[in-house]
Amino acid sequence: MSVPARAIVMSLVAAVSLAVLALPHDAAAADCGERTVLSSTPDGDEVAASGVSMVSSLNDGAQQTLIVGVGVAVPDATPLFVFTNGLPAGTFTVAGGIGTLNLSNVNDVLPAGVDPVCAIGPVWVTDADGTTLLTGSF
């Protein structure tokens, strides 16, 4: 991945991390706010894959969000697939070496394996052939 693309990814990671950390948190509610760095697999190393995933839940799950941001040296419009808890979470395409999956129950129903976001364990990102590029866990 080029230096400017990596800088953009790291800026995105920093901005989203600050936004998640700035969210109010009520310790009595079943809410969460976590961030994890995704580790590159050997196949991911071949395409300079890096990434981060974040979850946030507010008001006892009334507002839940999952964000997965990646930087990867693949052609524009390459689809990547995100899995959580062993189930498909969503798909996004790469543009300029970066891509983001942003899921929220505010406007949509969260897919199985994502709801509730506080119960997400393993997260991984694959290419269209099912090759795992990045992995992590909350």
Describe this structure in words.
The chain has 138 residues and is of the alpha+beta class. It has a single domain (3-137), classed as Immunoglobulin-like, CATH 2.60.40. Helices cover 17% and strands 42% of the residues. The protein has 2 helices and 8 strands, in the order αβαβββββββ. It has an 8-stranded antiparallel β-sheet with strand order 5-4-7-8-1-2-3-6. Strand 4 and strand 5 form a beta hairpin. The two termini are 26 Å apart. Residues 20-29 have low confidence and may be disordered.
List the helices and strands and how they pair.
Elements: H1 3-22, E1 32-40, H2 42-45, E2 50-58, E3 63-71, E4 79-84, E5 87-93, E6 98-104, E7 122-126, E8 132-137
Antiparallel strand pairs: 1-2, 1-8, 2-3, 3-6, 4-5, 4-7, 7-8
The CATH class label is Mainly Beta
Strand content: 35-45%
Beginning-to-end CA distance, first to last residue: 26 Å
Total number of beta strands: 8
H/I helix tally:
2
Q: Kindly state the mean pLDDT as a whole number?
A: 87
| H and E order | HEHEEEEEEE
Radius of gyration: 14 Å
- Unreliable residue stretches: 20-29
Q: Could you say which overall geometry the principal axes of the C-alpha atoms support?
A: elongated
**Widest β-sheet, arrangement of strands:** 5-4-7-8-1-2-3-6
Count of individual domains: 1
Largest β-sheet summary = 8 strands, antiparallel
CATH architecture tag = Sandwich
Examine the coordinates and then state which fold CATH places here, giving the name of the CATH topology. Answer: Immunoglobulin-like
